[in-house]
Amino acid sequence: INSARVNLVVNPVNDPPILSNIETFALEFDVDEERAIVTRTIRVSDVDNVNLVRATISISSGYVRGEDSLQYVGNSLRLESVFNDTTGILTINGLASLNEYEQALRSIEFINHMTQRGTQQSKTISFIVYDGEDWSNTVERRVRMVDNFIPLDIPTGFTPNGDFENDTWNILNIEWYPDCEIEVFSQNGNR
């Protein structure tokens, strides 16, 4: 029987971080809202690192400059964020734990200041994180823009003279706005 001594040198290889568990259904965003949390369930893991150094969250499709933005609203003192209005990308920087980054990603708000009704389109928001050596996989959440605005049909005048034509003043769909206040003015501007 022959024996031999063999020396093996094992060089460690970094495993990239992993993002998982983001909602698979679209975030329904009512255009009358101003902001909404993008994800409440995303998970961050990394088998060989306890910290991350960066996250990039982008409106990767459907971005409208001046209307759409992303905001980090977390409270980690180690993380700083910058939103680039030209690209639609929010970058979070800072050496922080996996848990802090997970909480940061769960605090991202999508903000929309729609300037014209009826022009809304779906958006896709993408997430990716960096451990200092490798980027994670990319996960996405679709944002479906919903316009629940119900228009009012307000008559411009009425003639309550008993001829059964325009005798009453009825605002169609007013029942959808229970807290509204109505004031009627004469042609001269008197209430």
Could you describe the 3D structure shown?
The protein is mostly beta strands and 191 residues long. Helices cover 4% and strands 34% of the residues. The protein is built from one helix and eleven strands, in the order E-E-E-E-E-E-E-E-H-E-E-E. The N and C termini lie far apart (111 Å).
Question: Which structural traits does this protein have?
Answer:
191 residues; mainly beta; six-stranded mixed β-sheet; three-stranded antiparallel β-sheet; 1 helix
Adjacency order of strands in the biggest sheet: 2-11-10-5-8-7
Number of strands: 11
Q: Which range does the strand content fall in? A: 25-35%
Q: Major β-sheet, in short?
A: 6 strands, mixed
Number of separate helices: 1
Globular, elongated, flat, extended or rod-shaped: what is the shape? rod-shaped
Average predicted confidence as pLDDT: 88
Q: What letter string, H or E per element, gives the SSE order?
A: EEEEEEEEHEEE
Derived structural class? mainly beta
Summarize the structure.
With 191 residues, the protein is mainly beta. The chain contains one helix and eleven strands, in the order E-E-E-E-E-E-E-E-H-E-E-E. Strand 7 and strand 8 (89-97) form a beta hairpin.
List the helices and strands and how they pair.
Blueprint: E1 18-20, E2 27-30, E3 35-37, E4 43-45, E5 51-61, E6 68-72, E7 80-84, E8 89-97, H1 98-105, E9 108-112, E10 123-130, E11 139-146
Parallel strand pairs: 2-11
Antiparallel strand pairs: 1-4, 3-9, 5-8, 5-10, 6-9, 7-8, 10-11
